[in-house]
Structure formats: C-alpha cells, structure tokens
Amino acid sequence: MKDKNLVHTPKSEKVSKSVLFGAAFLMATSSIGPGFLTQTTVFTQQLAASFGFVILISLLLDVFVQINIWRIIAVSGLRGQEIANKVLPGLGVVLAVLIVIGGLAFNIGNVAGAGLGLNAMLGMDPVYGAVLSAAFAIFIFLFKEAGKAMDKVAQAAGGVMILLMLYVAFTTSPPVGEAIVNTFKPEQLSIFAIITIVGGSVGGYITFAGGHRLLDAGVKGIDSLPDVTKSSVMGIAVTGVMRVALFLAVLGVVSMGLAIDPANPPASVFKLAAGEVGYRMFGVIMWAAAITSVVGAAYTSVSFIRTFHPAIEKYHNWVIILFILISTLTFAIVGKPVNVLILVGALNALILPLGLGTILVAAYKKEIIGNYKHPLWLTITGGIVVVAMAVLSIMTLIEQIPLLF
C-alpha cells in the first residue's frame, strides 16, 4: 500500500529558488522585529565582546530547532497543528490557541514598532505611521498571489536591513579581533541571554513560519528534504548576519566609550555612529523589521487555524487582514498593553518546547511520517533544546505572573 506521506516529487518539478528564499526570509524577517533590535543592543552593552559567544550558541540551537520542525512538516505534508492533533487529539488546538494569542499580542508591538520606524525616518506621528504601515501590510494580502508578494517584500526588506546594518557596523570601527576571540573563549557568560535570543529567533509562531510557507507553495515529501534543510539553514544564516552586524555596530560604540540612551538603545547606537543620517537609517531598519514581522506574525498565526473550518481556509487572506486590523486598532486606541504582553511573552516561551517536543514525538510515528527515518543527532539535539527551554520558560512564568497583580 502506497503511503500518501511519501509521495516523491518528480525531478522535473524543481523547487524554485524564489520559494526557498521566500520561506527563509519570511522566517528571518519574522524574527528580526523591534524586540530583536533592542535585545541585541542591550545584551551587547552588558556582555561586550562576549556577546559573540551568545550569538554562536544561539545560532546552533536555532538550526537544531528549525531543521527538526521544517523536515517533519515537509515529510508529513501537514501543518504544525495537524501534526500535534495526530500526536494527541486536541493538542493541535492548544498549540494553535497559544500561537494565535501570542502572535496577536506581539503584533501590537510590531505595529507600534512600524509607527516608531516611520517617526524616526520621516518625523511622522507614531500612531499615523502604524496605521499607514498596517495599510501597506494589508495591501500585500489583497493580491491573489499573496504568498509570492509576501516573499518579495520579505526578501527586499531583509536585503535593505542587512546592507544598512553592515554600513553602520563598518562606520563604528568595532574591535573585530576581540569579538572573534570572545566568540570562542568568552570572558563573560549569560545563560539568560542565550535563552532570550533563542526564544526571540525561533520562539512562538516564528519556528513554523517558513515551514508552513513551503508547504503552502507545494514543497513537501521525502525528495524535498535537501531543499527544505537548505532553506531553513538559510533563514538562520540571514538572522545571524543581521545579529552579528548589529552586535559589531553596538560594540564599536561601546568601545569608544559613548553612552547609549537606555530609553531607545538601538536608535541611540545609530545616531552615535552616523549622526542624524544614522538616526534616519535606524528608522528605515526599524520600519522594515517591524512591517515584515507584522506580515509574518499574521500569516503564520492564521495558518494555524486554517484547517479548523472550511470558511477560514477559503477566506484565509481576509482572516489575515482582520488579524492585522485588530492589532492596529488595539495599538491606536488602547496603546501597548504592557501587562498582557508580559504574560503572553512568558506563555509564548512555552510554545517552542511544546511545538518542538510534539514534532520530535511525531518523527517516530509511522502514521504521520511513514517510513521516513529521522536522524538520531537531530532528535538528541532537539530534545536538549526542549528540556532547556521548558524549564526556563516555566521559571519565567512563575516570576512574571505576580507582576500582573
């Protein structure tokens, strides 16, 4: 009996580079949001050149997470919530609810970040900037080929961010030699920084973003695995380049003994590095980072509920637009709900171990992956990430919940 999960893609149906790049950049730009810029700046201030070690370890952990999840999604031909429901009935619903709530809450922050980006770039009122940015994001999903439009926007925005970040890193003349030495032999070590960076890079909806995009583009089956692996590693590499460039830019500023403004650390770095022009460049990077995160959060969050009802599947682009509208209206009317974001942030941290743990169990269920043999080294490394992130995210929850009352 032929296993439907193991349908081989004919060699003639070569996966286009555009699709692979699109999925990689969707994942990467989804993780490079306002939080990414702030976290990297703050941790570089605290750890100086030793933050290079944090980047190295977090990138390795990110790769283990991404390859595990993307491979099982491709082999099974199922989205994350469908896999979870097959592992344990109802688990997919729990995972979907966590991702949608977390994605919606953090999208409020992404929309706010887009408004702040236009404020720094053009002097526009942040609320007006947020509304204009949301209109741009919605416009993408009005296209019939919204997936392709999203791929192009992610690639263009990612390219602009990388070029501008590298330019600023170059202008600050950072101590590259010291950074390289500390990347492999750090003078300081922060487990909290590693966990925070991993959670920010592949936590919540981000870890499924590219895998779901490839699935929607028809990339699945055993024969697709080399392309899937390549795309997942490419996404982490793009994130890594951005992280390293920002790290070096901040390190250069810190090494010169300049004081970074704690009210807006990343903006301060750009202004100190390149004056008023640098501040405008920060606006461009902030806007690009935020708008791609808005698109990525909305697309991936809705992909987790598409299978729950035929109407959602049929009108999923309109559901994505509604998702963006709710995020924008909440920011414009209420502002950023800090307490809710704190709690949802802690809950969001649980999504990575829950999602990855479910995927690792699915990797050994024949009814999900057929005769596919999952590499043992991926299971072991994935298992280590699950345990570490589960323990630390629960500790975070215990610490954060009392702050709400």
Automatic annotation (TrEMBL):
UniProt cross-references to PANTHER family, sorted A to Z: SOLUTE CARRIER PROTEIN FAMILY 11 MEMBER, TRANSPORTER PROTEIN
Transmembrane regions listed in the UniProt entry: 20-37, 43-65, 86-106, 126-143, 153-170, 190-211, 232-260, 280-305, 317-334, 340-364, 376-398
Gene Ontology annotations for the cellular component aspect, listed alphabetically: plasma membrane
Superkingdom of origin organism: Bacteria
Keyword Repeat attached: no
Localization in the cell: Membrane
Bilayer topology annotation: Multi-pass membrane protein
Keywords: Membrane, Transmembrane, Transmembrane helix
GO MF, any single term: cadmium ion transmembrane transporter activity
Name used for this protein in its record: Branched chain amino acid:cation symporter family transporter
InterPro entries named in the record: NRAMP_fam
Primary location group: membrane
Lineage summary: Bacteria, Bacillati, Bacillota, Bacilli, Bacillales
Organism: Sporosarcina newyorkensis 2681
Pfam family of the protein (one): Nramp
GO biological process, one term: iron ion transmembrane transport
